[in-house]
């Protein structure tokens, strides 16, 4: 009988998505271009490409969405480049925040694509010739079928890997996130709304994983921030814990980022050596996902 991972960690995060249309400069410029061409019935998206609706714009640039009247001119004056805005409680709110000397923002990569999270200027997903959702999907793809698997996702972020794991058939996904500010940003992101189906544990990953029983996960997705930001998540001590909680025959994908830069070559060698010392039997570089597929 498959072992179930008992959650002993007390600090759980109850995710709740906040409804409301999303606006970006690219979206509004697209609407403006069509308006200038005298298009008055426009097929567009207000959730960054997840769904599309028809809106009717009058000759003065006003349109109705969800029983609210919006002015295209007013929105263009408010919404800045490289930010995502949301209409909440009769206000247009920019999705960013300062907290604990850190700056967080939801950064658009197109008006019809999943956005990325940016912390202190560092993006949490690949965005060059790839969009953040596809980036996360490719990480999950390395693991093959997840049907009926119990999955641990380390570093929730916007939740794209956890949600993709669930969509690929995982029986249960448990995700760990250290920073509540990140989850607060996610609660405003339409592409994160399915995080309400994920068991989110709020805390330091090294402390949280120590609470799990031996060999209780079928699959682990380890998607940490950069080495210089969260070096403890690349340590031998942490890898030993991951080896302990992964069942025999289980798989782990460990995202590391680009290997081609000279500054990363020694880091990648060190990661592979520590994974071997931790007891993992097979470690393969997966170029399309920029990380290691690890077997126990």
CATH architecture call of the largest domain: 3-Layer(aba) Sandwich
How many alpha or pi helices?
8
The H-and-E topology, N to C, reads as EEHEEEEHEEEEEEHEHEHEHEHEHEE
Portion in helices: 25-40%
The overall average pLDDT, rounded, is: 94
**Structural shape:** elongated
What order do the strands of the largest sheet run in, or round the barrel if closed? Answer: 1-15-14-13-16-17-19-18
Q: Name the poorly predicted regions.
A: none
What's the story with the biggest beta sheet?
8 strands, mixed
Strand content: 25-35%
- Care to count the β-strands? 19
The total tally of domains equals 2
As a whole number of angstroms, the C-alpha radius of gyration is 21 Å
Provide the structure class.
alpha+beta
Name of the level-1 CATH class of the largest domain: Alpha Beta
CATH superfamily of the largest domain, called what? Vaccinia Virus protein VP39
Q: State the separation between the terminal residues, measured CA to CA.
A: 19 Å
Q: Can you tell me the CATH topology of the largest domain?
A: Rossmann fold
What's a quick, concise take on this entry?
With about 300 residues, the chain is an alpha+beta fold.
Question: What does this protein structure show overall?
Answer:
The protein is an alpha+beta fold and 296 residues long. It has 2 domains: 12-17 and 126-295, Vaccinia Virus protein VP39 (Rossmann fold), CATH 3.40.50; 25-78, no CATH class. 26% of the residues lie in helices and 29% in strands. The chain has helices spanning 25-36, 72-78, 132-141, 160-167, 180-186, 205-209, 236-245, 262-278, and strands at 12-13, 22-23, 41-44, 53-56, 62-65, 68-71, 85-88, 91-94, 96-99, 102-107, 116-119, 122-123, 150-154, 172-177, 199-202, 217-222, 246-255, 282-286, 291-295. An 8-stranded mixed β-sheet has the order 1-15-14-13-16-17-19-18, with helices on both faces. Helix 3 (132-141) packs across helix 4 (160-167) and helix 7 packs across helix 8. The longest helix is centred in the last third of the chain and has 17 residues, at 262-278. The radius of gyration is 21 Å and the shape is elongated.
